[in-house]
Write a structure and sequence with these properties.
With about 700 residues, the chain is α+β, with helices and mostly antiparallel strands. It has three domains: about 5-155, Glutamine synthetase, N-terminal domain (Ubiquitin-like (UB roll)); about 165-410 and about 425-550, Creatine Kinase, Chain A, domain 2, CATH 3.30.590; about 565-695, Four Helix Bundle (Hemerythrin (Met), subunit A) (Up-down Bundle). The chain contains 22 helices and 19 strands. Strands 9, 10, 11, 12, 13, 14, 15, 18 and 19 form a nine-stranded mixed sheet that branches. Strands 1, 2, 5, 6, 7 and 8 form a six-stranded mixed sheet that branches. It starts with a helix and ends with a helix. Adenosine-5'-diphosphate (ADP) binds near residues 190, 260 and 332.
Length: about 700
């Protein structure tokens, strides 16, 4: 036990370490910056840098790096050695406050969406002291924000930090008006549940699609999928268990509170969830988690797939973003308590979230959009791409009371009798769970379930923070002007519920009826990333981001460009990989099989025996016909790719071609290949099949 507690956070320059290693005055000054957002003095930075360096050297670090999150969605790091040669041919270890606070990576190789002219290559990284530094792979890693020479955000973290300030400011105004005099800061918290697939590295290496795109571009359905529902929460296999154990240890060393692990619904699919933390720290931690999951897998001869849809026909992976608002004095603002109906504060924050989600559903939708997630949201697999909120029976009942003008009671869960006298009667939750809602209230937080498994959670969270800040701003304005605050609260709640109840849906979100019903209610069902991205240049959305200082118009426009470019590039790589596999592997396999069949016919004929060769002839005819169709589809796909690649100048037009032409043709090519796979001799098939990939561990 003690061992584990010693391990936890051992590679983190955390509060305890700072308190121990920093002079009292320095520690106090730094804490002020961290807790109250006050600017940091450069003399303080020098002292902190020196202590950090000594601590890191003791942990075996030789380098330091500004660790940041450019718009690629993964993390970037450039390592510099601490070493500084001296005149006498020796070296000392140096790390100054300046080096801690500011870095200057060449920004020209990171996506900027036109924000940074090519001659203006300078980019800066700035220390985010609210997220602790850590040692990883012999480097001291300093979490930073990344911006251009002119100060515009080129990363995922900057808008997140800005949004945290925005929501804190507005939530505090509301709390004050509700009579709270003690809270000085409101913090948004997140616990991301991370889903992933594990495959054997030896098999992975034989599939170019997995190597280049992270998903299978071909593959016939195996005889068994997830229909037996025997994998979810199933006993964890030894090899996976050893892998999970090592991830836990690596994460714990970094102060990441990995807590829950289990098998997921699909074969070879698993989940890891940490204990929640402040949004920006949780975001950093989730990036580190994904990084470590991939690295540790390799040590076990495994590969961790974070793609949203590595395999067609079985569930894909998502990331559930559990989000809430808390105060620095320990309150959860989304905690309903035992009697939510008379919890004014809870109802105000709850209704603010409902309104925000309804009004800015398109922003939430785009925050969950990436090319991989298009295979899940709105595709033939649930969940749909419609944003709606699940509240559950108890809150639904309160909402109805609010609408009717008199809120007088809260339904309670009561006790549940199991019917066995030796088993205790369990206290029942006031609401059942709902697994099909994209945005579900789960006790004292909202679970935004649409997020892509491979994506950064910075986007969903800076958008959530900002849109809720906007509604809280409106609430605060109105309460400030009101003669009778309580009466105005009642008016606001009734108005919000009446206007925005259309976004609340407690039924089965995966049903066809809901799709029809949502359309009646006027809720959007934006099925593709390319369409969802339009929300980034919508005037209403630009206005809300600018108003709260989260993103400027130029920054929004750049994100629009980057997202479209990223979409086109992803589909382009997938299509090119498909073409290569089709021409060099699948078509030759089909021809080889046809040749074998022909040879069989000839050999039998030569014996002079009047054997029945209808099997060979029928198969030969079918395989040859499919091969011919396959070849045609390759040519059509090649033409579509060429057309899309040569559409320069308009990123939206190009992305549309990739989505509605190239992507469609990829599906047609795959269809033929998957049929061939079920006919061709297994020994001739040039790559591991779904059965092998999914069931071999
Ligand atoms: P389930 O699978 O039942 O949805 P998990 O236990 O897998 O739940 O994950 C729930 C996540 O929600 C955990 O990461 C947990 O720490 C997080 N969580 C709990 N309370 C809060 C909160 N107040 N704010 C943010 N996240 C929270
Ligand atoms: Mg879970």
């Amino acid at each position: 036990m003690t061992k584990l507690s010693q391990l936890y956070g051992s590679n983190v320059f955390n509060d305890a370490v700072m308190r121990e290693l920093l002079p009292k005055a320095t520690y106090k000054a730094l804490k002020k910056t961290i807790d109250q957002g006050l600017p940091l003095d450069s003399a303080v930075a020098d002292v902190v840098a020196n202590a950090m360096k000594d601590w890191a050297l003791e942990k075996g670090a030789t380098h330091f790096t500004h660790w940041f999150q450019p718009m690629t969605g993964i993390t970037a790091e450039k390592h510099d050695a601490f070493i500084s040669p001296t005149a006498d041919g020796k070296a000392i270890m140096e790390f100054s406050g300046k080096e801690l606070i500011k870095g200057e990576p060449d920004a020209s190789s990171f996506p900027s969406g036109g924000l940074r002219a090519t001659f203006e290559a300078r980019g800066y990284t700035a220390w985010d002291c609210t997220s602790p530094a850590f040692v990883k792979d012999d480097s001291l890693c300093i979490p930073t924000a990344f911006c251009s020479y002119t100060g515009v955000a080129l990363d995922k973290k900057t808008p997140l930090l800005r949004s945290m300030e925005a929501i804190s400011k507005q939530a505090l105004r509301v709390l004050k008006l509700l009579g709270n005099t003690t809270t000085t800061k409101v913090i948004t918290t997140v616990g991301p549940e991370q889903e992933y697939f594990i495959v054997d590295k030896k098999l992975y290496d034989q599939r170019k699609d997995l190597i280049f795109t992270g998903r299978t571009l071909f593959g016939a359905k195996p005889p068994k999928g997830q229909e037996m529902e025997d994998h979810y929460f199933g006993s964890i296999k030894e090899r996976i268990s050893a892998y999970m154990k090592e991830i836990d240890e690596e994460l714990w060393k970094l102060g990441i509170a990995a807590k829950t692990k289990h098998n997921e619904v699909a074969p070879a699919q698993h989940e890891l969830a940490p204990i929640f933390s402040t949004t920006n720290i949780a975001t950093d931690h989730n990036q580190l988690t994904m990084d470590i999951m991939k690295k540790v897998a390799l040590r076990h001869g495994l590969v961790c797939l974070l793609h949203e849809k590595p395999f067609a026909g079985i569930n894909g992976s998502g990331k559930h973003n559990n989000w809430s608002m808390g105060t620095d004095d320990g309150m959860n603002l989304l905690e309903p308590g035992r009697t939510p109906h008379d919890n004014k504060q809870f109802l105000v924050f709850l209704c603010a979230v409902i309104k925000a989600v309804d009004e800015y559903a398109d922003l939430l939708r785009v925050s969950a959009a990436n090319p991989g997630n298009d295979h899940r949201l709105g595709a033939n697999e649930a969940p749909p791409a419609i944003i709606s909120i699940f509240l559950g029976e108890q809150l639904q009942d309160i909402l109805e009371q609010i609408e009717n003008g008199a809120v007088t009671s809260s339904k309670s869960g009561g006790k549940m009798e199991i019917g066995v006298t030796t088993l205790p009667a369990l206290p029942k939750d006031a609401t059942d769970r709902n697994r099909t809602s994209p945005f579900a209230f789960t006790g004292n937080k909202f679970e935004f379930r649409m997020c892509p498994s491979s994506g950064s959670i910075a986007g969903p969270n800076f958008i959530l923070n900002t849109i809720v800040a906007e509604v809280l701003d409106e609430v605060a304005d109105r309460l400030e002007k009101a003669a009778d605050v309580n009466a105005e609260i009642k008016t606001i709640l009734t108005e919000f519920v009446t206007k925005h109840k259309r976004v609340v849906f407690n039924g089965n979100g995966y049903s066809d009826e809901w799709v029809a019903e949502a359309e009646k209610r006027g809720l959007k069902n934006t099925k593709t990333t390319v369409e969802a991205i339009q929300a980034l240049i919508d005037e209403k959305n630009i206005a809300v981001m600018e108003k709260h200082g989260v993103l400027s118009r130029a920054e929004m426009e750049s994100r629009y460009e980057i997202s479209l470019e990223n979409y086109s590039k992803t589909i382009n790589i997938e299509a090119l990989t498909m073409i290569e596999m089709a021409k060099q592997q699948i078509l030759p396999a089909a021809i080889n099989f046809a040749t074998d069949l022909a040879a069989s016919i000839n050999t039998i004929k030569a014996t002079g025996v009047a054997a029945d060769m209808s099997v060979q002839t029928e198969l030969l005819t079918e395989v040859s016909a499919l091969a011919a169709q396959f070849k045609k589809n390759i040519v059509t796909l090649e033409a579509a790719v060429e057309k899309a690649e040569n559409t320069h100048g308009d990123t939206f037009e190009q992305a549309k071609l990739f989505r509605f032409d190239v992507f469609e043709k990829m599906g047609e090519l795959r269809g033929v290949a998957d049929k061939l796979e079920t006919m061709v001799d297994k020994d001739l098939w040039p790559m591991p099949t779904y059965s092998e990939l999914l069931f071999n561990i």
